[in-house]
Amino acid sequence: MTYLLNALSVILQLAFSLVATLFVLRLLAEASRADFHNPLSQFLYKATNPVLAPVRRVIPNWRRINLAAMLLAWLVMVLERAALFALMGVAPHIAGLLLLGAADLIDFVLLFYLVLIFGWSLLSMLQVDPYQPLMRLAAAIVEPLLRPLRGKLTAGTLDFSPMVVMLVLIVARILLARPLIDLGTALALGG
């Protein structure tokens, strides 16, 4: 029976991660002012707007931060944890579940940036067309993180700023997200 539970938990995590990715991408694309004429940006808008539009009437943006997308991504993470606890047959405490949702969202965003910067750097080194829609969206999202270090960590034509930012993201996952996940798990399980 545990094999079936493991398979179901993987499927649940994948499904919730895909939904969370849409909301996180929408949040980051709006915050970084990604080109709306990009076909991927238009897809994000069309895929998330039916759910976001009613929520945005109640929760407006704060500066360039789409608070409605952040709230929905957090709710997706909370629902994912609740579903995983239900699969295990555990009734978690609500405070721990809410904290776990926030910790999971922080960890998800940090990991998302880590993967995106790595992929963008790799594709940049392979000299993929910078006007390709995926490259334009990825560049718009990673640029705010790379901009402070851009040009300061170069050796010849190599720019090491993506490597430094990726290292900072890994350390943030270890020092910020992991303790929050541990605390949320302890609270959820009543420990």
UniProtKB/TrEMBL annotation:
Keyword Cell inner membrane found: no
InterPro entries: CCB3/YggT
Residue ranges of the TM segments: 6-29, 108-126, 160-181
Keyword terms, alphabetized: Membrane, Transmembrane, Transmembrane helix
GO cellular component terms, semicolon-separated: membrane
Superkingdom of origin: Bacteria
Name recorded for this polypeptide: YggT family protein
Species of the source: Dyella thiooxydans
